[in-house]
Amino acid sequence: MGNDTILEARNINKYFREPVLFHVLKDINFKINNGEFVSIMGKSGCGKSTLLYILSTMDTDYEGDLMFMGEKITGKPHEELARIRNKHIGFVFQFHYLLSEFTVLENVMLPAKKLGIKSLGEIRHDAMEKLKLLHIDDQAHKLASRISGGQKQRVAIARALINDPAIIMGDEPTGNLDSMNAENVLNIFKDLVREQNLSLLVVTHDHDFADQTDRIIEMGDGRIIHQ
Amino acid sequence: MINCKVILSISKTHLLSRIKQTAIAALGVTFGIGTFIILVSFMTGLNGLLDGLILNRTPHVHIYNEIKPSATQPIDLYTKITDGFKVVQSVKPKFTQAKIHNALPLMSQLNANPDVKGAIPQLRAQIFYISGSIELGGNLVGIDVLEEVRLFNFGQYVVKGTPQALNNIENGILIGSGVADKMSLDVGNTVQVSTVGGAIFPLKIVGIYQSGLADIDNIQSFASLKTVQRILGEPQNYITDINVKLFDIEQAVPMAQFIEKQFKLTAIDIKTANAQFETGTSIRNLITYAVSITLLIVAGFGIYNILNMLIYEKMNDIAILKATGFSGRDVKYVFISQAILIGLIGGILGLMIGFGMSVVIDNLPFETDALPTIKTYPVNFNPWYYVIGITFAMVSTFLAGYLPSRKAQKIDPVEIIRGQ
């Protein structure tokens, strides 16, 4: 890539217009490098989740520039942003967002099917590989609604990995898990960064979790206090 | 195209995982389309029957000599009065012969016209049926029976005996069923008829004619052209009417105008003679379509409702799909394709049920004295109604699915994910 920076925020400002005008994010500037494991911390309501959704390209209502893989993506059409999310960004949410009527395997395969580069056989094989990596391949053919919370979170991580993204973003990915499962997820993330040179950006409340990341960005009142 | 497959597989899973709701939505369409098919097949079948009752035996152009006053009276030729106006009182009709002048050459010329399926002669005579001292007024029509059978389905209305017998038996008559009832006559009997002039002829009954219209059956009988000419004492070129059947009924109006102009005869086209039938048919069709469209709109609202609810239930799914790289348009297609699948499955099922019910109706016995040749309810199996039916189903379900799908397209995933 010739560029160490995968994601860069330049002077990002964001306002909530309802119910009253509110300046949520104020002049956010930071970079995330290739293969870096970064966590964003801060009190509730300081705007960290809002920032994450802007970085994830899902929220386009902001001021400032967002650079992704050396390219400015602010102002691109929604179709294009959806394609970027599909190919380069993996998501893990606090609540394990799986499609409950599909099997675990289908959930993992879906983003790759959407991308449509590989054949169905290859996608199925890759999806099984990702599930094996997370040690839940034995659940592959169960419906997503029939497995436990910790398992669901691992399935969500497998889904985030299926298109070999450049970066994984998490919004409190361990917030809803007990300490054992949280530890488990953290270890999975660390392995991914180490073995696959993935970048990770995680919003968290959990100090223990954040302490084990490469870098902590601390936010307060819509500003970056410390990074 | 790969995209298409993924979207279809998602909507298939959505539909199958809530099979009951899907089935209810599809059944709404099935009911609408099925009823449409049954209604339209039955109604148009009935229309065809009723129209056929009149139109099949009505000539497309009927040529005859009409008794009427001259359009220009002699006084009109007198030009010396410039300052006044002319009044002729008590105008009498012009005396013309009842027969068509030069009828035989006229017929051969018409038959040579490529638009004409056939032009055949008739000779109408006023007669009395005589039974003892009772005289019943009536008509005797001399016809070329084989041509009548070929062009005007004459055979359908002969309920006893055969029309061909008219040609084989000298002095044969096909007697109207009303007349036969009144005089207790049957095939094989002889009936006496007298002309207006008073001459009496015995005719042998070879068949009974029943049109289904009592007014006609009570007075009208048929004999061969030659027989009627002999009864009237007229030569072989004595013909009062020429009936023309065309290949294309739309040509009737210009053809009638052409004949009137060229031969100075009265020519009535079928549209003028039977305008009220077209009106009746079009109004019945209008009612059929109005009822069917109402049914489909109701079914459409059902689909709209179910999809709307589905989208509220699937907010999470929509957010995930959008977060993992499906665009708003993809999500819209997921829901539109569900609506279209419901429409397609429901519609095809509706066509099958409609067809099945039509077959059942077609085989139900339906016997009435007025319609001697009809044994079962008439049903029109026109494939176009099936095409219209499935098109309706697709269009209405598409519209019902489109609005909720657009809502799904616009859902902001961030709001949903944050809202948890």
Summary tags:
heterodimer; A: 227 residues; alpha/beta; Rossmann fold; 6-stranded mixed sheet; 4-stranded antiparallel sheet; 7 helices; 10 strands; 36% helix; 27% strand; globular; B: 420 residues; alpha+beta; 2 domains; 10-stranded mixed sheet; 54% helix; transmembrane (chain B); ABC transporter permease (chain B); cell membrane (chain B)
Give a quick rundown of the structure:
The complex is a heterodimer of chains A (227) and B (420). Chain A has 7 helices and 10 strands. The model of chain A has no long low-confidence stretch (mean pLDDT 84).
Q: What does this molecule look like?
A:
The complex is a heterodimer of chains A (227) and B (420). Chain A contains 7 helices and 10 strands. In chain A, helix 3 runs parallel beside helix 5 and helix 4 packs across helix 5. The longest helix of chain A is centred in the C-terminal third of the chain and has 18 residues. The two termini of chain A are 25 Å apart. The model of chain A has no long low-confidence stretch (mean pLDDT 84). With 420 residues, chain B is of the alpha+beta class. Chain B has 2 domains: 197 residues, no CATH class; 193 residues, no CATH class. Chain B has 15 helices and 10 strands. In chain B, strands 1, 2, 3, 4, 5, 6, 7, 8, 9 and 10 form a 10-stranded mixed β-sheet that branches. In chain B, helix 13 runs antiparallel to helix 14. At the A-B interface, helix 2 and helix 3 of A face helix 1, helix 12, helix 13 and helix 15 of B.
Structural class label of chain A:
alpha/beta
Shape of chain A: globular
| Unreliably modeled segments of chain A | none
Estimated helix fraction of chain B:
40-55%
- Unreliable spans of chain B: none
Helix-strand topology string of chain B: HHEHEEHEHEHEEHEHEHEHHHHHH
Largest sheet of chain A: 6 strands, mixed
The CATH C-level name of chain A is Alpha Beta
Task: Kindly report the average pLDDT value of chain B.
Answer: 85
Percent strand of chain B equals 15-25%
